[in-house]
Amino acid sequence: MNKENNPFDNLLKIGQLKREAFIQAEFDGLVSTANRKLHDSKNASLSKDSRFDLAYNAAHSLALAAHQKRNLAEYEGFTEIESSLLEALINATEKLNLILRNEN
Q1: Cβ 57 vs Cβ 40: under 8 Å
Q2: What is the pLDDT of residues 42-92, one digit of tens each?
Q3: Positive or negative CA dihedral for 40, 44, 47, 52?
Q4: Helix (H) and strand (E) counts in the chain
Q5: Distance between CA atoms of 77 and 8, rounded to whole angstroms?
Q6: Other beta carbons less than 10 A from residue 22's beta carbon
Q7: Number of Cβ within a 10 Å radius of residue 48
Q8: pLDDT value at residue 60
């Protein structure tokens, strides 16, 4: 979707949608939280349930951070999404998809 035909522009114009600016501190906080939770999820002395929750929440925080990067690219005119971010997202999604399909 390019800047010229963004369907959200009309919602912005009529006040039904509010543009949120990229906040570096929020992004950094999400990544920092994810790193702590991911580290803690590797603690084998915790239950599998606790470790799963920690790993899931780490992944969620990283997904939110990646989404902020995408929004910056999409809505602020920075059209270049880093190739390494895209490849990591695709690879992680493919691995999770493969595991979940094989469990059914």
Answers
A1: no
A2: 999 999 999 999 999 999 999 999 888 888 777 776 667 788 988 999 999
A3: positive
A4: 4, 0
A5: 14
A6: 14
A7: 8
A8: 96
